[in-house]
Amino acid sequence: NPHAVVFVDDTKSLDLEKMVPSFEQHTIFPEQVNTEFVHVIDRHTVDMRVWERGSGETFACGTGACAAVAAAVAAGICPLEEEVSVLFDGGKLQILVHTDRTVIMTGTADTVCECQV
Predict the structure, then answer these.
(1) Which of 21, 36, 84, 91 is 20 to 30 Å from the Cα of 105, by its Cα?
(2) Binning pLDDT at 50, 70 and 90, where does residue 113 land?
(3) CB-based burial, 68-81: b 16+ in 10 Å, e otherwise
(4) pTM for the complete prediction?
(5) Cα 106 to Cα 11: distance, rounded to the nearest angstrom
(6) What percent of the chain shows pLDDT beyond 70?
(7) Taking a C-beta distance cutoff of 8 angstroms, is the pair 3, 33 a contact?
(8) DSSP collapsed to 3 states, the chain
(9) How far apart, in whole angstroms, are the C-alpha atoms of residue 2 and residue 33?
C-alpha cells in the first residue's frame, strides 16, 4: 500500500484536484500512490488530508496516518515512543512509532452509512 507524504504549511487551502494527479500517477509509482498532505501543528499533533489512489480525497486513512507519522519521526519532526494525534476531517487517530519502527494506531470506528443489497 504505497504512500507519499508531503509536509505543507497549510492543508486547508490545497487544491487537491489539481495537485494530486502529479503525485498519484508519477512514473516512480507504477501502480499509483496514496498521497498524504501533512501540516505539523506541534511535535505531538499533525493535521492531514489524504488522497487515496483510485478514490480521490477521503475523510481519513489509517495507513496514511501511520505513514505520515513514520515519515515525521524519520525526519526528526515528531518523537519516537510518544503518541502523535493525526487530525482529519473525519476524526482523529493516535499513532505511536516505537524505537524498532513498529507502528501502533488507535482510534474510534464510526458507522458512516448502512446499506442493503
Answers:
(1) 21
(2) confident
(3) bbbbbbeeebbeee
(4) 0.90
(5) 23
(6) 100
(7) yes
(8) CCEEEEECCCCCCCCHHHHCHHHHCCCCCCCCCEEEEEEEEECCEEEEEEEECCCEEECCCHHHHHHHHHHHHHCCCCCCCCCEEEEECCEEEEEEECCCCCEEEEECCCCCCCCCC
(9) 5
Query: Phi and psi of 66, rounded to 5°?
Result: -60, -45
User: Which residues have CB under 8 Å from 40's CB, separation 6+?
Assistant: 7, 46, 72, 77, 78
pLDDT in tens, 29-84: 999 999 999 999 999 999 999 999 989 999 999 999 999 999 999 999 999 999 99
Query: 43 is written with which cell numbers?
Result: 511535535
